[in-house]
Specification:
It is built from 13 helices and 15 strands. It is an alpha/beta fold. Bound molecules: flavin-adenine dinucleotide.
Amino acid sequence: MIEHVAIVGGGFSGTLQAINLLRHEGPRATLIERADEAGRGVAYGAAHPSHLLNVRAGNMSAFPDDPGHFVRWLEARGVAEAATAFVPRLTYGVYLGELLDRVRRDAADRLTLVRGAVCDVIDGSTSVDVRLTDGRSIAADAAVLAVGNLPPHEPQGLSGAHLSADRYSPDPWGAGVTDGLSDDDIVLVIGTGLTMVDVALMLDARGFRGKVVALSRRGLLPRRHEAGGPAIDRLRERPRLAAADLVRAVRRRSEAVGWRHAVDELRPFTQAIWSNATEAERARFLRHLRPWWDVHRHRLAPQVADRLAAMQADGRLEVIAGKTIAFAEQEDGVAVTWRPRGEDSARQTIVRRVVNCTGPQGDLARTDEPLLRTLVERGEIRPDAAHLGIDVDAGAATIGNDGTVTGRLFALGPITRGAFWEIVAVPDIRTQTWNLARRLSNAHWVEGEGL
Ligand SMILES: Cc1cc2nc3c(=O)[nH]c(=O)nc-3n(C[C@H](O)[C@H](O)[C@H](O)COP(=O)(O)OP(=O)(O)OC[C@H]3O[C@@H](n4cnc5c(N)ncnc54)[C@H](O)[C@@H]3O)c2cc1C
């Protein structure tokens, strides 16, 4: 019988897990977060006002059983045409914070918030012991790892360059990324995905009038959402596709219905397609098609796409396909040696600062995170086959190195991408946390939507 669940990480996934456990009148929960504040995480806490959600508000309810919840919350605050709006991520953080505050008020005896960093979770035969770096330990019947993405890898060629903190920003949301720049500076952003977009917008909003050069292997930018709401003629059944055939089929469908519809209508089936694909098919998909998939699937709000286009038109944003080779700090900046895609000869550009926007990682074999490293070393968790995160079963229970599932340790959110692939955005994580809450509350034995 599970009476107490310890949740490691109070970002979106962990917070929603706690909220859903309380909604199910399930076990009591302890939510442990190492940052100052639980409830928002990286995406909705550290954002700049210019950062908008990349999903329409109509799809951003925290609750799968109440899809209109966020829209009603916005309408109550005077937001017009809320369902199709792309609101600031900070607003979404306020929404999540309020949800957490409400459950804390309503069920104060069943939710404990702990500020601290977890360094180990010892899975005993009937319970778990969650250890914090300050020496505290919390006993629970189960633990949920909701630790978010791992930090990005170092850009190629950077290792050993020893760039100073003023010249290299490893964390795109960290302090100082936009500090001390002048209008004739060049900022090199490595990566051309959504993280680069965040940095370009933030530089622009803070008045930087120099040039942003964004570089990635293919130089692909995320595509834009259409201004109107999606009118998707969804597929009625799961396409019988192996992952490797997916994009070919989407391309064919694109010719008939347009690429946005072709990508969107697959949404309800992506997890099942991924689960049914072989390891080799998944590896092929990741190797050849992931960049293409990412830019079509994770799109930009129209206002954001317009802003970027304006920066490009003004010559303040240049997007380049190529790869970095070496970095050397010098008096007037960083000399970056790089090679344009498809060319043999390298070039050199002097930039004021380099920002790592290569995107979140999940490879447990390469992480320095003490908690995950310890759990991997002891064999309690293992990397999934594609090294995208923590290996879990269909119910989010972690799988040990010897293939064992104890049912006392679970993982949630993007760190479970290896098992589900489509588990990055709110609409998928909210369902995952809801299902796990039902399981931990024994509600999954009950027909319908909960108790
Ligand atoms: C910049 C950005 C923008 C996004 N925009 C959207 C969007 O518009 N729409 C959408 O649907 N999705 C969006 N997403 C995706 C999605 O919402 C996030 O991936 C999701 O918030 C993941 O939440 P998480 O709780 O799993 O991870 P995180 O938010 O990273 O939270 C993990 C938390 O765990 C804590 N933690 C980690 N290790 C420990 C430890 N050992 N001890 C204690 N605490 C620990 C961390 O401090 C952190 O607060 C965005 C993601 C990002 C990064």
